[in-house]
Amino acid sequence: MRRLLTLLLLWTTHSLAEPPVLRFSIAESWSMPLMRVQGGQPVEGLLFDLMQAMARATGVRPEYHVMARLRLQQAMEDGDIDVRCYVSTQWLNDRPGNFVWSVPLIHQRDVLVGRAGDSGPTRPEQLPVQAIGTVLGYTYTTLEPFFAAGRLQREDSRSQELALKKLQIGRYRHAVSNALSLHWFNQRLPAGERLQVLAVLEEQSLGCMVRNDPAVPTQALLRALVRMTESGEIARIVGRYGGG
Fold first, then answer.
1. Which of 39, 53, 102, 195 has its CA 20 to 30 A from that of 216?
2. Residue 196 is part of which domain span?
3. Arithmetic mean of pLDDT, 194-207
């Protein structure tokens, strides 16, 4: 009996010492420099570094849930995740009421991309009827009227990297990419083969959404992100992956 009580005390002490778990969502469509997933878990990337820094700043243990991008909003509504990062207010049809926005963390530019030497149209309204490389589940506000009118057709890929690879081999003439991913993709190519920016389509400020629940250190996380922004830590993380 005494041994059982001792084991129970040790187990309780160990449990109390365990830091709380914070569940981060990871979109399957992310590729480097945002995130590289191996064996079902993230191992490197800008967003991985950001999430690790958030966990350290608030003393929690990060738990990563990899899922299809189209399932992210439902996971928020079902309470399956605590933090969703790399998100814009423009991307959500309905914001789950139990989530709180962080300060803006990353400034993103979505650009129209062509192959090396492409001297064709540089504005969406000038493009001939064609399929254009896009990423499954992403919303492209500037191009939506052209998709709706049938002027352009989406050709979705599961990741940004795959969309750019298809452009490189000539699957289509144009694609849409965020500037960070394009820079990362191009740095592996000879100068004469690099994909080129034809136009800036839109710019967005991206942040994180944190579940507002007593079990989650919501305010501590939001304050930590403010400190990380003001100290330049966020900028340094972005800078490591080619952002400015």
1. 39
2. 108-203
3. 93
